[in-house]
Write a structure and sequence with these properties.
Chain lengths: ~240, ~240, ~240, ~240
DNA sequence: CATGAATGAGCCTTCATTCAT
DNA sequence: TATGAATGAAGGCTCATTCAT
């Protein structure tokens, strides 16, 4: 009885799913997860609520799909970054670069991510979406870890310092934290932050210097590295001014 | 012909407001902002819902007041920390100490804080509460700033490095970020984090070392400093093990 | 804080609860349980849906309350019937009379009762309503049982026949069945039933005769008994024609 | 220029209709009418929802068709029962036997039947299905009636008693009522009912005795009759223990 | 002042029915 | 003919907010 869906049908379905996610992302960002209303979403996409449920099992599923989509993009950027040829700290910098690029492209990603910390949220999400999310999480972490391990092997990180996972965590922490702080409207002005990305990068550098990750900031021209990263890996990152 | 409120009335009003906030905080922590029910809150405080509305304009107002209250407490801790007598980096450490103490005392503060990032939340809060929140934010920042400036004056921070506000921001960023990362359940295990507070402090140290804030970690016994901070400023911080 | 509700408030509340139940009963009868819509109910009573939920915990609770109310009325009638002074079979007849009176007053009670046979229904009802229902059920059954036992004691029922509970069940069965059959529109005409109540009574008599419950129909003037029952116990039963 | 449907097409259509009804019955029994989902039904039969609507006008129509089908089966059993050779009361017993056999084979038939008591249900059913249902109802009634009339002719029922239709009704009533009472979970235990079928038959016998339908229970070995009924008419009725 | 009954818009989700393909 | 994607009204229920008392 059931015919296989035609290619056109498949394509239309994918397009509509993307449409749903695009609008869901927008609404999530402005209203938060609990504030996301399927009525409003349906109105936005100009399809009925029933149609949304042909694509997703629950509201939680939608939010998780939005997040996973962003996370997948981030993972892709991270993996591209690990392919940068250079010193270990330059490769770490490439990941930091990727992170900033993601930040520019998905300025409010962290806010969405934060919304999903509650247990009940995960309980109501479908297994499929849960797995997809965890898969992408793992990809991110592994990229980072890979660079840290390479730095130990190359002797660029002093052997006795923190275990590699904690270094990865520290890098992630300073990045996430800087990102969040940069988003607090009042503080940006108060602290004279003009370029939030620059601040994130600065803070990353300080931490890596603190870790004694060679070569230190003062011993190397990382501006040149950034230009190479952009040229070789992330040509789309137009936010990095040349020179 | 409304009489001015008597002093007694004023006092009673303040007491009840505090009662509301105490219970609201508890409920916010367990259920989140959307999960906060005014029915439940009214039942908790043993006043009617109408009475709550004599104190606050909206649910958002209540949540904001809870957050502000916590922020005020944090500011107080920070200000106490600035009074620590010692090297500039020791005073910075005192602020880090205060931050950790706050973290221990208000383990879910960040969660509440995060809830309020959406625009619609702020739209529905009253001006009065909004201002109160910003006021307390400023106090925190100024305490931090004061220590950084003193470090420059003392020559403990190299003159050419970042502007002081950005150093403050970097410190706040690494702290906030570490805290948040430490709360992600999966990651804690994945990265082998046993003691989240220790991780926060480690990351702070790495950053300050990266800033070349003298004396560096390797040149000073900061454990002893911590013991002094506790003894002289925060005797209530029982989470710090002696020795 | 909470004042005790005034008498007037209490009265208003009871009146409204009765209003809800009256309309709920009507809607249940026309649409069945699943077809009962709280929107429609709210529209009927000209109160909001929220108000309904101040009185009942769930839709199931409402339906159960409707049924229990009718059942309570039936129990009252049964208990009054047991107080009839006369031969044991006359007392059984008084209960049959009560049952018919209830039937006339609550013509569609059985339909509602039938709706609630599913497990899920009971799962969703509140303990309070559940208990109330069972309480009333018990009262009905006990009245019946009491008369049967008295008949055995008086020797009006042959000792060797069915156990008393099964006699009660048989009486209830023939009554319920007759009632239901009488309600099937097509059959009434087909079988030439003019007076459904008469049919129910007839069938009861046949069964009691079959049980050899003395005095048999042909040995006693039960019309006279009916007149006495009405005169002494149920003066409100205007459906019984005198003579 | 639509061609008349070929015989093959007709046959296929009938097969599919039967398929739909088979699955619909199963789903109705497990979930009730409101719980019957056309999505689930379509999945079961492995045809699309649209196809179902080529056969039936509405969900109500499907349920009514299921019920009618069961009723047809019951009518068939009744007609077979009327062909039993024996005394009039033995033939009545054969119909009672048929009824019990139907009960055992379709244990939840009454539940489905009850679902359809609401006005709105009938309003939404098609004329065609409504008529089919009434037709089958009539067949059942006529079988019963035929036996009653024969009893009068044979002098087994006293001439002056009830009109024949009312005797039929009485028999149907006691059967339906007993069946329903037997299904009430609490009562079964309370009244010590072990074998619901036995109770139904007992009550039928009491009624027929009450009618003075000869030979009375005490004057005849109806167990032997039952064995003959099974042997000669309902060999498939394995629920009747031999002896 | 303080109350809490009353509100009603809003919540997420389901599903019988339609209709373009 | 058969499909199943799309619909959208309706479902039960919640709860922040108001206001007559």
């Amino acid at each position: 009885m059931s015919n296989p869906p035609t290619l056109r049908k498949e394509r239309e379905r994918a397009v509509r799913e993307e449409l749903i996610l695009t609008h869901a992302r927008r609404l999530l960002l402005s209203n938060g997860f609990q504030g996301l209303s399927l009525d409003e979403l349906a109105r936005s996409i100009e399809y009925s609520k029933g149609t949304i449920y042909l694509h997703f099992d629950s509201k939680e599923d939608i939010a998780l799909a939005v997040t996973t989509e962003a996370l997948r993009e981030r993972s892709n950027l991270f993996e591209r970054a690990t392919r940068f040829q250079g010193l270990s700290r330059e490769r770490a910098r490439a990941i930091g670069f990727a992170c900033c690029h993601f930040m520019v492209t998905n300025p409010d990603y962290f806010n969405i991510d934060m919304m999903m910390k509650s247990q009940s949220f995960w309980d109501r999400a479908s297994d499929k979406q849960r797995e997809a999310y965890l898969t992408q999480s793992g990809r991110c972490f592994r990229s980072l870890q890979q660079v840290v391990l390479a730095a130990f092997e190359a002797g660029d990180l002093p052997a006795g310092s923190l275990p590699p996972e904690q270094i990865s965590m520290a890098m992630a922490s300073v990045t996430v934290g800087s990102h969040i702080m940069a988003e607090i409207p009042g503080l940006k002005m108060l602290a004279g932050i003009e370029d939030p990305i620059k601040m994130v990068r600065n803070n990353q550098d300080l931490l890596l210097d603190g870790l004694q990750w060679k070569p230190l900031l003062r011993d190397h021209d990382y501006n040149a590295t950034d230009q190479r990263i952009r040229a070789e890996i992330f040509p789309e990152a137009t936010w990095l001014k040349p020179g």
